[in-house]
Amino acid sequence: MNNKILIAGGSSGIGYGIAKHFYEKGWDVLITGRSKDKLNSAKAAMPGIRTIVYDSANENHLADLVNFIENDWNGLLDILVNSAGHVELTSLKDISKSSLEAMYQAHLIGPTLLASKCLKFLAATNGHILNITSSHGIKVYADLSAYGSAKAGLNMLTKIWSLELAPLGIKVNAIAPGPTNTGILKAAGYDDETVLTIQESEKKQIPLQRRGNVDDIVSVAVAILESKWTTGIILPVDGGISIS
Ligand SMILES: NC(=O)c1ccc[n+]([C@@H]2O[C@H](COP(=O)([O-])OP(=O)(O)OC[C@H]3O[C@@H](n4cnc5c(N)ncnc54)[C@H](OP(=O)(O)O)[C@@H]3O)[C@@H](O)[C@H]2O)c1
User: Fold this and answer.
1) Contact between 83 and 132 (Cβ < 8 Å)
2) How many CB atoms lie under 10 A from the CB of residue 95?
3) Ligand 1 test: best mutation among 6, 14, 144, most atoms within 8 Å of CB?
4) 38 Cα nearest atom in ligand 1
5) pLDDT tens digits for range 49-62
6) Is the beta carbon of 180 within 6 A of some atom in ligand 1?
7) Rounded to an integer, what distance in angstroms lies between the CA atom of residue 231 and that of residue 228?
8) How many independent structural domains does the chain possess?
9) In a domain, 218, yes or no
């Protein structure tokens, strides 16, 4: 029987890169996203990959994922990756309840409920949870109350879960990427000029003097996921930005 990986937010960017790696290794791969079109494009590029529309705020979508693993994968899951997320720059004076709720839903509530529902599947394989957090959850910036606190919270959840789940043989780790070339800024609604300005400013702060690529993150994700004796780490993969 093939090994099985679920990647929440696997329809683009970092999650897609992780999905592609495991797809090419012959694993059974299930990816999620809110956009059906993006999921269909991924399916066209990786025939046989499984896709489910999943917005973590929608309890029916969560039930769909759980039912799929129970019925189609016989209740087995080797790896859960929490990569679904978006970014937003907001000053404290302009922050709104709806943007805070969306941020905490995507990065804290969603991953927690998904991990909770997947516990029995992961326990059956002595599996692994990998959370994709951010250097913004480590290094402090202004205008990032929502995103920075959400990612710092997910870093802490990683450590809490790792202690709690170690007796079940489940490993829990996080990668905290630095600025990485994906569509996340565009998806946040910024125009091309603003995206370039943000990217240039980020690049100047990176000691290794370049932004990351998806492969920079995937290669480290794979190394962590291959380890059988690593749990509770928050690994910055960020060109050094978190210590700059
Ligand atoms: N790129 C970076 O510079 C960077 C740096 C540090 C950390 N990260 C983190 O890495 C993760 C992946 O980001 P990425 O750069 O790969 O971005 P991306 O290419 O925009 O991918 C985001 C993925 O999450 C899904 N998604 C977005 N918001 C969602 C929500 N509210 N609920 C459910 N699914 C959602 C997207 O699909 P749909 O839009 O169709 O839902 C997509 O599958 C995120 O958690 C991000 O915070 C990124």
Assistant:
1) yes
2) 15
3) 14
4) 40
5) 999 999 999 999 99
6) yes
7) 9
8) 1
9) yes
